[in-house]
Structure formats: structure tokens, C-alpha cells
Amino acid sequence: MVKSLDYRDGFIGDQLVSCYLHKGSIPDAQKLFDEMPHKDSVSWNSLVSGFSKRGELGTCLSVFSRMRSEMALELNELTVISVISACASAKARDEGNYLHCCAVKLGMELEVKVVNALINMYGKFGCVDSAFKLFWAMPEQNMVSWNSMVAVWTQNGIPNEAVNYFNMMRVNGLFPDEATMVSLLQACENLHLGRLVETMHGVIFTCGLNENITIATTLLNLYSKLGNLSVSLKVFAEIRKPDKVAFTAMLAGYAMHGRGKEAIEFFERSVREGVEPDHVTFTHLLSACSHSGLVREGKYYFQIMSEVYKVQAQLDHYSCMVDLLGRYGLLNDAHQLIKNMTLEPNSGVWGALLGACRVHRNINIGKEAAENLIALNPSDPRNYIMLSNIYSAAGLWSDASKVRALMKTKVLTRNPGYSFIEHGNKIHRFVVDDYSHPDSDKIHKKLEETMRRIQEIGFVSETESILHDVDVEVKTDMINKHSEKIALAYGLLVCNAHKPLVIIKNLRICRDCHNTAKFVSLIEKRTIIIRDSKRFHHFSDGLCSCSDYW
Ligand SMILES: [Zn+2]
Ligand SMILES: [Zn+2]
User: Disulfide engineering: 277 pairs with which of 95, 160, 281, 541, CB 3.0-4.6 Å?
Assistant: First the structure.
């Protein structure tokens, strides 16, 4: 066919240009394009959009200006949209503003598709105001315009506006589609509002989007992140033909909640159903083994990962294995595993080892791990504190204070601890020793009363945990006023007694607060779920799902 026809001409030529660009044969594409006897706007567009899709902004722009000067034909909106999206992906602000001007000069400022592309571009640049103005100046917004605005608010960390725009969109008689829901669920995640997710779940049903696998996967992921693994399972069960992404999301849920045995069963099921595991699958599986203390199983899967599934061990897998071995006190094995690594260990790997040394009080290995961590990230206060705690626990007070002094000279910023809890469609956020809440008096009274009650049945405040605390939010007399304790007291006051109390903490929970939650779950006979920076803790009947290792 190629020989019998002049392939450079017309439609075939345009298709070939796109094809070459798609495959990355840029010189071929350009040569063919230059040889084309009759270049029309379609040919030019193939070239521009090909470069745009490849993310080659420079080339894209030079073709665009050649087109403006050489071409007698008018530029059409497709060309402009291609270049705008290239600017958006490259986050090239100056070029983006230039394109906006071109669009105005070409009289395209009211073309819906062009404006949508501009809104999307300004959203990526973080210029929410510009996106906002363009949106409201449109004579008529279509579905894509609304979706773009919902995405702009979500991407720029203003999730409540995303929800507002969604509501306005519904008032305007539009039904959400996949793109709307994916952005919106992302906004719900940032808002940490479980109730809102339930509402969105209802909307998903009413709009018949529950069959959509991308939405279902996002939703189940969200439920497990917000502490509701059982609903995640239901959402998963309703997916008619779960794909690898859905399986992986569900496995991640099991891992996050420390449900090791179920994670393994689920993994085996996915393999039986023909899903080929990859490195992400194994990261979740190994992390599930580690969170449940399944040493034998973890070792087995780590081995077959490369031998059977040909997945090479990466840094995340090593972190999980070090955590797994370390948790069981197999510190020498964990240390040996790091020494035998072909990759350069990162802070995740050393951090797992240091965490284990803290729990099992191993000074020599702990010191090595902390030194490596400090070398990798000298401005992170946690490593200095952990090292100092290891020294203090061993009675090496002068070494401990040297480390603290070193920290003061090196560390610039400290991350303050806070906890939040959802009530009445609102998020209530607390910091240490917080009296800012309108119900503050009641909350602190409840906290004091609860602490007294748990002390009566044997709770002992752990002064040691101050030494071991990594949260930095502590002063000795502040331990009873940690943010998670205040959030817990608030939850006891206001939340439905038949539902689990869900608290989210930005840092690692300290041993004293962990113990408090265990005792409170016992006396109040309720489930308390605390998500800290490490994992989920499910407290009930005086025990925690992490078996006191996190
Ligand atoms: Zn605490
Ligand atoms: Zn726990």
C-alpha cells in the first residue's frame, strides 16, 4: 500500500505523522511532515497534538509559531487546546499566559472547549482565581467545565469548595460522571468526613455509577482510609469483574488495618483469579504480614516474590521485611538483611530498624541505624529523639543529652502534633493542651474523669513514654493533655455510643495515649479506632489490633 500510493499525502500522511510521534520516531515524523505536499490544518494539528501528548512543550510551541507564520489557514481551536494542555502538563506559566493571550486574539475566549482547557491549565498552575474568573465569565458551562472546577478546588487543597461546586452543578441539572466523582471522592478524603463519603456513595448509586470500576475502587480505598474496612469489603464484593487495581486497593486496606491472615487469603484468591501480582501488590502483602507479626509467612512471600513471580525486591519490600523481623526481636537478621541488600538502603529501611531497636532496646544496632538516618535527613527531629531515647533507656544520660543538643543546632522546624475527629458534619481539630474548642470545659472535665476512672482499674501513666515519645509535642506535665486524649474525651461526649470512635492523628501515637485508648475501650465498652502516621489501631475490650507494636 505504501508503495502504490503517495503515502505522504492527505489523510494517510496525517495518520502516519501521529503514529511516528506516538512511537517516539520524532525525526521520521518531522521528515514526513516536511515532505507532505499539501499541508492542511489537520496535518499541522497532528504534529502539534503529537508533541503535546509527548510532553515536548518546546517543540510544540515552535511548531505552533511556525504554523502561525507559515500558514495561510486560520488556526483552529484544536491546535490551541493541544498547546494549552502541553503548557499545563509542563507547568509552564509564562507560555500558558501567552497562549491565553493568543486565544483571546484569535477570538476564542468564549469557545467552551478552549476555556475548559484554560481552566484546567490555571488549576494545575495553582492559579485558582484565574480559573474561577474564566469559569464564571463563560456564557454557558458544560459538564467538562463543572468537572474542571471541581478538580481545580480539589487539586489546590480547597475540598469544601469542590463539594460546593458539585452541589451547584446538581442544581443546574447536571448528573455527575466518572471524572466528577473521582475528584469529589479525593476532596472527601482531604476533608476526612466519613459522613460525606456515605452521602457521595448514595449519589453514586442514584446516578448508576456504582458499576464503574474506577469509582468503586476509589470508594473502597477511601472507606478503608477513613477506618471503615467492612464497607470497603462490601464495595469490593459488588464489583462485577474486579481488576488488578481493585484487588490491590483492597489488599492495601487489609494491610493498613493489620489484618494479615485475611490479606494472605485475599492475595491467594487474586492469584487464583488470574491477577498477576507486581511490586505494589507485594509491598502491601509484606506490610500486612509485618503489621500482624506473621514472620514465617512474610519470609515465604519475600522469597517467592522474586523466585516465582519475578518481582525484584525494592526498597519498600526491604522496609517491610526489616520491620517484620525487627518486630519479633530478630534484630541481627534484620541488620544482616540490610547488609546484604544490593540497593542503597533509604530512610524507610533504616527507620524500620531504628523503630525495632527502640522497642527491643538494642543500643549498638540502634545507634548505627540512627546515624545513617541522620546522615540521610539531618533536619528530621524524630531520628535525634529516637537515638536520644535509646541512650536514655540504657541509662547513658550524657550521650542522650549530647544528641538533644545536636538536634537543637540542626533542626529547623518541628512538626506539631494534632488529632481530629468528625462530629455533626464537621471536623474538630485539637492540639496538645487545647482549650480553644467552644465545649472545652466539658471536654477537659470528661478527660479528667475518664483518666481517674481508668486509673482506678489499674492504668498507670507511663513517664517512660515521655522519653520514648517521638511526637515532640510533649512536656512532662502535658502527657495527660495530648491531642488524641482530648479528641477521645470529645468523642466520648458527643459521638453515638454504638459506632466506633474514629480519631486521626498526624504523628505517631505515644505509648501513654495508646494505653489510655486500650483502657477506655474496656471501661466504655466501645471500639476506638485511631489512625496515626504509621497505621490503624483498633481498640476494643482493652486490646489493640497492633499487639502493641507500631
Ligand atoms: Zn500521647
Ligand atoms: Zn495499637
Answer: 281
Separation between Cα atoms, residue 436 and residue 440, nearest integer Å: 7
Structural domain for 478, as ranges? 419-544
| Closest ligand, as measured to the CA of 536 | 2
pLDDT value of position 488: 96
Strand partners, 538: 529
Secondary structure class of 531 (helix, strand, coil): strand
Looking at the CA of 511, which ligand is closest? Answer: 1
Ligand closest to Cα of 479 equals 1
Amino acid at 133: K
pLDDT given at position 414 = 59
pLDDT in tens, 226-276: 888 999 999 999 999 999 999 999 999 999 898 999 999 999 999 999 999
For ligand 2, a single-atom ion, which residues have Cβ within 5 Å? 537, 544, 546
Confidence (pTM): 0.72
Q: Which ligand is nearest to the CA of 509?
A: 1
Terminal Cα distance for the chain, rounded:
66
Among 102, 131, 160, identify where a domain stops: 131
The interaxial angle of helices 279-291 and 315-327, nearest 10 deg, is 10
Tell how far the Cα of 511 is from the centroid of ligand 1, in angstroms: 7
Triad 461, 464, 468: Cα angle to 5°:
120
The low-confidence residues of the chain, meaning pLDDT below 50, are 1-5, 465-475
Domain ends where: 99, 131, 163? 131
The ligand whose atoms approach the alpha carbon of 510 most closely is: 1
CA 503 – ligand 2 centroid, Å? 13
CA 481 to ligand 2 centroid distance, Å: 19
Q: Could you read off the pLDDT of 1-28 as tens digits, one per residue? A: 444 445 555 566 666 666 766 666 666 7
* Measured distance CA(370)–CA(358) in Å, rounded: 10
Residue 437: inside a domain, yes or no? yes
What pLDDT sits at residue 540?
Answer: 92
Q: Given phi > 0 = left and psi -120 to 50 = alpha, else beta, which region is 192? A: left
CATH of the domain at 103: 1.25.40.10
